[in-house]
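Bench notes, bay 3.
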Amino acid sequence: MLRTPTGGAGHGTAAAGKRAMSIGTVLTQLRDEFPEVTISKIRFLETEGLIEPQRTPSGYRKFGPADVERLAQVLRMQRDHYLPLKVIREHLEAVARGEQAALPTGGGGRSDPTGPPGDQDPAQATAGRIGRAELLAATGATDEQLAEWESYGLIVPATGGSYDAEAVTVARLVADLGRFGLEPRHLRAVKAAAEREAGLVEQVVAPLRRHRNPQTRAHAEATAKELAELSVRLHAALVQSALKASFL
């Protein structure tokens, strides 16, 4: 559900009212369902022609409820169906023309990459995983780029060459950062920091994971997830604080 400024019970975009919103307000609404969305991502989707917010005389973007809903549609099609932006744009344009356009399938030829493996190439299929072609379609990357990401350890395929949901998320973020000139070699420090944070979480939950009681092991998994979320939030806050200090 998208977050509503009034806390209403309905869909976030429906409850947003007719008031024009700033890009920061839009980001807040989207963050509940799409925690990884950023202002840069929204701006990039605008440059790709997926949204067309109004502009004030001074040049600031102003979004209406329809813009927010369209953004949510685009993000869902990326997340749930691994579709490249070009395909998403063509689909939305067809719908806007009143055509009965079926939702296209992802790069691997099926609409839901996390569905039963029988819907995918048996050589690549694993429940909850996608193949190389689908990952390339989801990120818009070339095979050479993906190979480079893998060479730096940013993306790690599973046995058989498939990719899990976390790999898809990492690939999308690496692709987005690449548009700002950040190359895989620049991201080695980020990967190293993430591995250190994961090590800290593992130290906390390791005794629980070794327990024979299934409920205790389940508690360990939930604790690890909560600690990971807190670690990510702390990391983001520290980066923002460092950036703020650099502009003083």
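Next record in the batch:
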Amino acid sequence: MQIYISEEAVVADIQEKFQTMYPYLKLAFYRKPHTKGACSPEEEQIPADTPIEKVRMLHSFGWLDISYYRTAAAVEHDFSYIFGLSAQILRKAGTLWLETTVTDSWTLEELNNAGRPAKHPTFQLPEEPSED
């Protein structure tokens, strides 16, 4: 699976293509790269309506491999190395989005599956006895 990064794209275009393939993952772009194992500061996040041309350091365009077997770290590296974009993959956890700093070595499939809601509750509270 690949997505095309064009010169005319805006951040939202790339985010939507990525999330179509991985509904429990999200891409965020930042003004500066994050260090290994660290989170990106929220105030550095690039708005979704920003044209890619305004934020990338390398002015190239082309295909990016986002196959299910690739790790978050590899995809983030390719965004930086090929396109000059500082990207961070986030995983859904209930109603929150968590940066994958600790799980960068997981594949996109593993991360997407981890973000999928449980089919059954993990626990149930005991019912209160009725007082008839």
